Amino acid sequence: MPTPSVTALPIRRLTPRDLTACADLSEDRGWPREEHKWRLLLTAGQGYGVDDPGGGLVAACVVTEYGPGERPDLGAIGMVLVAERHARQGIGRRLMRHVLSVMGTTPLTLYATPYGRPLYEELGFKTTGRSEMLAGRFTPGGPDPRVATRAATAEDLSAVLRLDAEVFGTDRTPLVTRLPAFSDQLRVAVDGGRIVGYAAAWPNMDTHVVGPLIARDTETAKSLITSLAAHSDRRLRTDVDVRHEELLAWAKERGLASVAMNAVMTYGITELPGDWTRRFAPLTVAAG
Ligand SMILES: CC(C)(COP(=O)(O)OP(=O)(O)OC[C@H]1O[C@@H](n2cnc3c(N)ncnc32)[C@H](O)[C@@H]1OP(=O)(O)O)[C@@H](O)C(=O)NCCC(=O)NCCS
User: H-helix or E-strand containing 251?
Assistant: First the structure.
């Protein structure tokens, strides 16, 4: 029997049972396996993939929807991957076209690596911003943080959800409510009894990723990062919107180095909703 052409293989929805195959695909492309992150995305979001008749996956991606379930305001696309052995055969394009048709009129966003960008541009995505990935060991120093922070409690959750929706511009309840279990730390910044920011640090391979990072201002963001670092023995990683120049300069003074630049792209909207001045870092570039 002739082997079917991989470009004609069906696209199916992925489930958390596909976790190992997704991590294998990441590894195939030279990415870390990131199983903890894949698990979250395959649970809170919707994965799409193409099975390899020889076993494993030929391609995968994940879409996380935000806003009301029946009519989402925004979809974030991430983890777009095609196995190296099947690269440049049109599979990435077909998978993305499928996602665009499933998502209909829902506005979309993604963080593009330089590899993905030409494909997304061809499909109609526009670059609307940039984000800088920082990583390294945080070294405390400089003036003491000015805004008080503490570990979040269950009682904080409704205030955190309200703040997050206001700043992100749409409701992210399915992701935010998973943060206490997904993260190693979830902290809030408090001023005058009000929550003015929050941030999580979650384990990814041998690092702690700082995100989401939502804060009233740069001082609050610095206080949150400093307190997360004080309770972590790992290298930190985060993705900061390049418009937050002051935070980026401070983080570099504190030992984090620039490791990558990603383009923030949108489809169906010219700008992301919400308030970028208080949105410092996404939970992950794969989910916004
Ligand atoms: C980006 C990626 C998903 C593309 O998948 P793919 O199936 O190889 O891409 P396609 O064959 O559908 O190509 C679509 C277009 O993307 C561009 N493209 C894809 N691979 C490219 C490469 N190595 N160099 C330059 N352009 C490339 C081209 O414009 C291509 O169109 P063309 O072949 O008609 O010229 C794949 O290369 C990949 O998994 N890369 C590593 C992970 C990654 O960076 N993902 C993007 C995350 S945002």
Answer: helix 245-253
Full domain range(s) for residue 57: 6-106
> How close are the terminal C-alpha atoms of the chain, in Å?
44
**Element spanning 193, H or E:** none
Q: Is there a domain that residue 119 lies in?
A: no
Task: For a ligand 1 pocket test, name from 41, 109, 119 the mutation site with the most ligand atoms within 8 angstroms of its C-beta.
Answer: 119
120 Cα–ligand 1 center, Å: 9
Does a structural domain hold residue 124? no
Output the pTM of the full model: 0.95
| CA angle at 27 for the pair 25 and 32, rounded to the nearest 5° | 120
pLDDT at 10: 96
265 lines ligand 1 (CB under 6 A): no
Q: What is the CATH number of the domain that holds 29?
A: 3.40.630.30
How much distance in Å is there from the Cα of 285 to the middle of ligand 1?
A: 18
* Distance in Å, CA 117 to ligand 1 centroid: 8
- Is position 88 within any domain? yes
Which residue lies with its CA nearest to atom 20 of ligand 1? Answer: 88
pLDDT range class, residue 174, cuts 50, 70, 90: very high
Tell me how many domains the chain contains.
2
